[in-house]
Amino acid sequence: MNGLLAVCFGEFLGVFILVFFGISTVATAVVFNAFSGVMQVALLWGLGVTLAIYATRHLSCAHLNPAVSVGMVLAGRMQPKLLPWYMGFQLLGAIVAGLVLIVLFDGPIQQFEAASGIVRGTPQSVRTAMIFGEYFPNPGMAQPWLKIGMGTAALAEAIGTFVLVTMIFLLTEGCNVGRPAEGVSPVFIGGTVSLIISVLAPLTQAGLNPARDFGPRLVAYFTGWNSVAIPGPQGGFFVVYIAAPLLAGAAAAVFFRYLIAPLMAIRARQLESCSCQAQCVNGSEMREASNWK
């Protein structure tokens, strides 16, 4: 039971750190025009991911993303019965992060809306709703001629999440003799997030994480954005920002487990340097999972 408590708290805390710093970065970009380009926002998101992993990797293995947790189950790195706990507390951490942000930033957001002629809850308020949830195309970067359909947006989120989850496996797999040292793998995971955001943010804001999107989006729904938050001006948030990343995480796990991992194991055995122990960020999940009864 103590192990399960650590997992729940670790996922809650890690997602809170990740989401709070991430959406606060978006808030300062929208309200204060604090950044000059998507790269700066992407780097801060990646730094938030890195800090969240370091803060919680010895509590819960720091999945911090339902798509990652689904992938870990399908890759055999986590017991399926733990999945609801992981996902539930990931969502809770994201909701609390959204609540803290609205407490801190609601005044400045309202002033920005008033100065910009935005009425919260109308379609134009997507400009401020984007602080909490994601939209396609990115309301802060969209050009009048730019149209992105739900299918394209879902594909973008799926590709981004697939790359992220695959890289997490590659960066933490014992048979990958080229992986970074355990102590610095969170830096590379955060860097991966930054790169993906830099590419996909103009299209979909690069959610890549169902908890990161849905938790703050719920907060926005209940604090005045209403239908602009859920289902959103174009609808489809569930398909694009929840279903697509979850399916992509599952696909990445199958791809890694049945294609990449066996090939790496063959090569590593040839080099006689394979630990070949399934591991998560800190390599302890399979050891601990058997004790979480």
TrEMBL record:
Molecular function in Gene Ontology: glycerol channel activity
GO terms under cellular component: plasma membrane
UniProtKB keywords: Membrane, Transmembrane, Transmembrane helix, Transport
Gene3D superfamilies referenced in this protein's UniProt entry, alphabetically: Glycerol uptake facilitator protein
Top-rank lineage group of the source organism: Bacteria
Transmembrane parts of this sequence: 12-32, 38-56, 82-105, 148-171, 183-203, 238-260
Location of the protein in the cell: Membrane
Protein name per Swiss-Prot or TrEMBL: Aquaporin
Organism: Desulfomonile tiedjei
